[in-house]
Design a protein that fits this description.
By secondary structure, this protein is mainly α. The chain contains four helices and no strands. The protein has one domain. InterPro entries: EmrE-like, TMEM42.
Length: 114
Amino acid sequence: MIVNKSYFAVLAGTFAAFGSLFGKLSGLEAFKGYLFVCRILFFCLMIVSNSVSLTMFTKALHNSLSSLYATVTCAATNYIISGCLGIFFFQEETSSLWWCGIGLILFGLNLVAR
């Protein structure tokens, strides 16, 4: 199967972002009493998501000519999706300065990868 060289790196970053989301959800105090099962479920989802992320990252490293390209693509995907998940699930407010900062980080990562 021929896949784009960034496919696995994007998947790795996506699963890493969701692993962070599940980790944060597993630590919420809102899940007390009988809802403690939800905390356990989110903790297990975090472990699974991080395991899949590492597997996808390993495949990205294997399919990439340079480990730097896979690392940069994975990190960029993780940054953007983590920011969007924070806004959507936790109503975190991000300023335009935050998004400009992410843009500069991605620009710098792109410079390093070239």
